[in-house]
Design brief:
The N and C termini lie far apart (about 60 Å). The protein has a six-stranded antiparallel sheet, with helices on one face. Strands 27, 28, 29, 30 and 31 form a five-stranded antiparallel sheet that branches. Strands 52, 53, 54, 55 and 56 form a five-stranded antiparallel sheet that branches. Helix content is about 15%, strand content about 35%. A hairpin with a 6-residue loop joins strand 13 (about 375-380) and strand 14 (about 385).
């Protein structure tokens, strides 16, 4: 420790400021230049390491080149005797750590003003020639001067102090450092470290974006975004948990709520990608806060202000036909408003389009989670109206006059007046997951039944017979997401097919309803919609707009990206465009019976069909490669946290189940004509053909004796069937046989642990229910679920069965088999799931559930409304 009056070269120490992992900091006076500076004395062990010292000198020169009013300057690296020290700008004022001490939240406008200047500092550093990353952004490293100027301290020093080898997995609070022999090596502070830092992975500027979000959250709430009693708990929260979003003050603008969620996404690929975006969002929020009436800010939440006031302005301006403006005479970005879900609700998330703007641009219809009710919100109002009788709703679409809404529920196509009233059923729908409808001016509705192998159908909006519009051809799996073009004679729709390389692709086509000719427009990751001379679609999570010529039914220009990280949108001929942010990735998550999240398996990805191995140490899952659009089976080692590929470049490898001894995975794949295959979990050796068939076959279980395979046919019919295949038949000509032979849709057959019973899902009632039948006699059946149920799973002892209720609850029912008839308990709701299409499995003891879920924040993503996107495109 240096005493007051001690001299280091031309610098005289005047006081001790503090200590940290990088050394002691002093205030000193530069007697040569007659100014006060800050001096950071490097640790002795650091100074003795000549290699690291040389590396530090190189980094220090780079950092000294940073010249920005919001970054504390580094003047030089000096040496006095054996002491090495940094000379830095002395910044007066209070650190943000001191500002929020005692859990004192900073007023919203002040917090945003501070955050804007931090974002400007990050923007300057990230955009510099070398792309400098801070790596240790935290409240203690940000000061606010008495004049209100924000200064970010210690910029880039974390890397400068680091050893050549990675030490990012070392944890020590408050500053993370390596072992004592490597004192001073810091790569972050626990509460502000990104998940990739906590896991010891490569650090990019995305780590600074994460830390920025954590700092802004703490300014607004007075509490750290990730808390714990020790470093281990804090890092666990960083990797696995979400901040308590309810702590954000009511006055927090919706755009800032969204900004925080996008900064604090676990997967750095899904975070905001640059500091300029941070700055722009905050500037827009501050502009809104500055122009709002004080009384309105005091009595109206940002939830209502952002949507109600902005929407009313949008509508009045559109009605007058005026040009909408931002802060400049000519629009550069579209004027926007933000819609959050109603209080105590989330938007329903299914990777489907579950909201739609009315054609006249006055209302928006959307679906919320839980009981999946349909809501309508007038855009000149701050409140939404639930429509009674629409439980289980999905995929709403409007009538051309904006008075009625079509939607799907209870395996039927339905309609309802936008103001409420009786629900009218128009046509049955075979599949549980509908994939679009569209309404023509003459009252014709074209819709999809949502089942693989199906074309499009039509029915009158007044009801009546259903007729076919399209039929799928060889290589096509489904026609879906129809959308009438304004002339009423052309129809956009999406075709799911397999391309020449074996990948699954989605083609956007336009159909001439008079000539029946189809024209392929492009391949896209979403359905397409048309409005105001443009085709809208999503490509690699970017919302694209591309000029489209109605007269010729062809694309006529280059596409332009309107928004990033988009998962759904709605385009209205009124000139309004709505979209919802988020990603189509999912995450494998462990839950207890009480619904408590225990941890995640692997990184976010596009997963499907998860299955636990018999010994519970591995999970097989189908994974989509974003680039090739092909699916392969992967095995997740749940003990070691690793993943290994089982199949290679499959043509849609999916629906994995395990052999009884856990050494092989049985799955469906489209290669070599399609069929069910078996392969060693190690991935070594070739795939063995189990059952050849061009249709999509979904294996679901193997009998305990290993003799029988139960699978479902999933293409060619709206009513899928359960089949049984003998794995080691006594006769070579033994054929597969339908298991139940009913006329209803039967799927998800699950053999009981003792092989005497089969649980399955059937459509024989008004909604899917779970049933039990004795096997192999099939002499009778018993209904297990009482209010709808899908995707049954057994506990290993056969004493409990699980299934998913229509509202998403994980259900459990106790079973006993005293004789030929099972004794059933009362179904019990365990917890609310966010399961994706039935992708889950349960441990042998029934205490943990591995669920394929969308990221937790996705349901709360707001819907953003753009008003003058066309003008922005012209600009």
């Amino acid at each position: 420790m240096l005493n007051r009056g001690a001299k280091l070269g031309t610098y005289e120490v005047t006081s001790h400021i503090g200590s940290g992992g990088m050394g002691d900091v002093y205030q000193a006076h530069d007697t040569k230049l007659d100014r006060d500076v800050a001096i950071k004395v490097l640790p002795e062990q650091f100074a003795r390491d000549s290699e690291r010292l040389a590396r530090f000198q190189r980094e220090a020169k780079l950092l000294a080149a940073l010249n920005h009013p919001n970054i504390a300057a580094i003047y030089g690296l000096e040496q006095s005797g054996d002491t090495h020290y940094l000379v830095m700008e002395l910044v007066p004022g209070q650190t943000l750590r001191e500002r929020v001490a005692g859990q004192r939240a900073v007023p919203v406008e002040e917090a945003l003003t501070i955050a804007k200047q931090i974002a400007e500092a990050l923007e300057a550093a990230h955009g510099s020639e070398k792309g400098i990353i801070h790596r240790d952004l935290k409240p203690a490293n940000v000061k606010v001067t008495p004049e209100g100027r924000v200064k970010v301290l210690d910029f880039g020093l974390a890397k400068a102090f680091a050893a050549e080898q990675s030490t990012e997995d070392m944890a020590n609070s408050p500053t993370l450092s390596a072992a004592p022999t490597m004192q001073g090596v810091i790569m972050g502070t626990a509460a502000y470290m990104s998940p990739e830092q906590a896991r010891g992975k490569t650090v990019t500027k995305a780590a600074d974006i994460w830390a920025f979000g954590a700092v802004l959250y703490e300014l607004l709430t007075g509490r750290a975004a990730f808390e714990g009693e020790d470093v281990t708990e804090i890092l666990a929260a960083v990797v696995k948990s979400e901040p308590d979003w309810k702590r954000l003050p009511e006055a927090t603008p919706p755009a800032i709520r969204t900004l925080l969620r996008r900064c604090l996404r676990k997967d750095r690929r899904q975070r905001l990608q640059d500091a300029a975006s941070l700055r722009i969002e905050i500037e827009d929020a501050l502009s809104g806060a500055a122009t709002a009436e004080p009384a309105a800010r005091a009595s109206t939440s940002w939830r209502n202000l952002a949507w109600g006031a902005a929407a009313m302005f949008l509508l009045s301006t559109l009605a007058l036909g005026a040009v909408l403006l931002l802060r400049t005479p000519e629009p550069v970005l579209p004027l926007q408003a933000t819609l959050l879900p109603p209080e105590n609700h989330d938007f329903f998330f299914t990777f489907a389009f579950n909201f739609a703007i009315s054609p006249d641009g006055t209302k928006i219809a959307f679906v919320t989670g839980g009981n999946r009710m349909l809501w309508v919100r007038p855009l000149d109002s701050t409140t939404s109206q639930p429509l009674a009788g629409t439980d289980g709703a999905a995929v709403p679409f409007w009538s051309p006059d904006s008075r009625s809404i079509g939607f799907f529920a209870e395996r039927s196509l339905k309609k309802i007046d936008a103001g409420g009233g009786p629900v009218i059923t128009l046509a049955p729908v075979g599949a549980v997951n509908p994939q679009g409808g569209t309404w023509r001016t003459d009252g014709t509705i074209v819709f999809t039944r949502g089942t693989l192998g199906e074309g499009l159908y039509q029915v009158s909006s007044g009801g009546g017979p259903v007729s076919s519009v399209t039929r799928y051809q060889t290589g096509e799996s489904n026609h879906r997401w129809p959308f009438f073009l304004p002339d009423g004679h052309q129809l956009l729709f999406q075709v799911l097919l397999t391309d020449s390389s074996g990948g699954n692709v989605n083609e956007i086509r336009v159909l001439d309803l008079e000539t029946k000719e189809q024209n392929v427009l492009l391949r896209a990751d979403s359905p397409a919609q048309y409005a105001n001379g443009h085709l809208f679609y999503i490509q690699e999570e970017n919302l694209m707009a591309q000029p489209f010529a109605l007269s010729s039914g062809t694309l006529s220009g280059a596409p332009v990206a309107i928004a990033q990280q988009t998962r759904a949108f709605s385009a209205s001929p009124s000139g309004l465009l709505a979209f919802q942010g988020g990603s189509t990735t999912t995450q494998l998550v462990w839950y207890t019976r009480e619904g408590k999240e225990l941890g995640q398996v692997g990184s976010p990805g596009q997963y499907n069909a998860v299955a636990l191995s018999p010994d519970g140490t591995k999970a097989a899952v189908s994974v989509l490669d974003i680039q090739t659009r092909k699916r392969d089976i992967w095995a997740m080692d749940l003990l070691r946290g690793t993943a290994s590929r089982v199949t290679t470049a499959g043509m849609g490898a999916n629906f994995p189940i395990w052999s009884r001894d856990g050494t092989r995975v049985i799955y469906w794949d489209g290669e070599r004509g399609g069929g069910i295959y078996s392969k060693r979990v190690s991935g070594l050796g070739g795939s063995e053909l189990v059952k050849q068939e061009a249709a999509v076959l979904a294996p679901s279980s193997i009998s305990p004796d290993g003799k029988f395979l139960v699978y479902t046919t999933r293409s060619g019919s709206a009513n899928a069937r359960l089949w049984i295949h003998e794995l080691a038949p006594e006769k070579s000509d033994t054929k597969d046989r339908p298991l139940l032979g009913t006329s209803f849709r039967e799927v998800n057959g699950q053999s009981s642990p003792d092989g005497h019973w089969l649980a399955y899902e059937s459509s024989e009632g008004t909604r899917p229910e779970v049933y039990l039948v004795p096997f192999p006699s099939l002499s009778s059946k018993v209904q297990v679920s009482t209010a709808g149920g899908r995707f049954p799973r057994w506990r290993r002892d056969g004493k409990e069965l699980y299934y998913i209720a229509p509202d998403g609850n994980m259900m459990a029912i106790a079973l006993d088999f005293p004789g030929d008839t099972p004794k059933l308990g009362t179904p019990k709701a365990l917890f609310q799931t966010r399961v994706v299409t039935g992708d889950y499995d349960v441990t042998a003891d029934g205490q943990k559930f591995l669920i394929n879920s969308p990221p937790a924040e996705e349901d709360s993503e707001p819907i953003t409304l753009y008003s003058n996107w066309a003008a922005a495109l012209k600009k």
